[in-house]
Amino acid sequence: MTDIFDFYHNMExxxxxxxFKGDITSELLTSILQIIESKMDTMHEEPRxxxxxxxxxxxxxxxxxxxxxxxxxxxAATGRSAIFMIGKTNGAYHIITGNYLFxxxxxxxxxxxxxxxxxxxxxxxxxxxxILNNGEMSLKGGGGLGMxxxxxxxxxxxxxxxxxVDDKFSFFTLNIKVSTNQQ
Amino acid sequence: xxxxxxxxxxxxxxxxxDMEGGFLEIKGRSIPENSIEFYKPLVxxxxxxxxxxxxxxxxxxxxxxxxxxxxxCILDVFKKLETIHKGGSQVTINWHYExxxxxxxxxxxxxxxxxxxxxxxxxxxx
Lengths: 183, 126
What we know:
The structure holds two protein chains of two kinds. By secondary structure, chain A is of the alpha+beta class. Chain A has a single domain (2-179), classed as Histidine kinase-like ATPase, C-terminal domain (Heat Shock Protein 90, 2-Layer Sandwich), CATH 3.30.565.10. Chain A contains six helices and five strands; from the N terminus they run H-E-H-H-E-E-H-H-H-E-E. Chain B is α/β, with parallel strands linked by helices. In chain B, 38% of the residues lie in helices and 34% in strands. Chain B has helices spanning 35-50, 68-86, 102-114, and strands spanning 3-6, 14-18, 23-30, 56-66, 90-98, 119-124. Chains A and B meet through helix 2, helix 3, helix 5 and helix 6 of A and helix 2 and helix 3 of B.
């Protein structure tokens, strides 16, 4: 029971509005989006901030939904499980996601994230249009548009980390900040 | 010709396509996980309309949110409209954005830069 109390205080200390660990389904995403939208309404957030957070949240959650690698209970990783958290500090909303992926997919994703992080605002706009117009659309999603869109809308670098779990899986975390000070 | 409509849901927009009147409207939210499946019937109907379009085609896009998965499908819809425009129907795309929503205005400008059809940026009150 002390564990639960510690857990509660941890969430309180980190200003977590909502956290979830488990299977990511379409219905779950709908519920999370509804909860966060109504929380932001209750908190009387500015419409433009609300929209930005909502948009970025959609992309983060759908990234999880489309791209987490199925681990089928091997080793440390279990099923389609992932973690998601959203919190609010004084200056920003923080959206944090974590999911397993195969070790062989780490280098490719890391390159894509570094590419996005190396671009200026104008370059991101051009890159977005180029991928939108010429890029291959996968059946799963926007064919790489998600990360570019998040970087454009937040105006910040994508903060990420890969943790090697075993010889098959790594754990990928993404930490996205949406500044509450929208100019 | 007939009308083609889809009722909106929390994740998908309302679509009204009046092929007799040369009017297409997409409004609401477009954030489905699988956008291709959702937009296919509209793209098919535009294809059909392209065979015998009205002299003018008015298009109203009034989206509150759309995800990157939808953005590619919306481009496909616009590309069909571009073909219709080239085929002799005067197409106008009215891109609505809420006052203050610079991201939505910028998204419209991205499409405007890619698609060879007259765009009108229409600001609406929140």
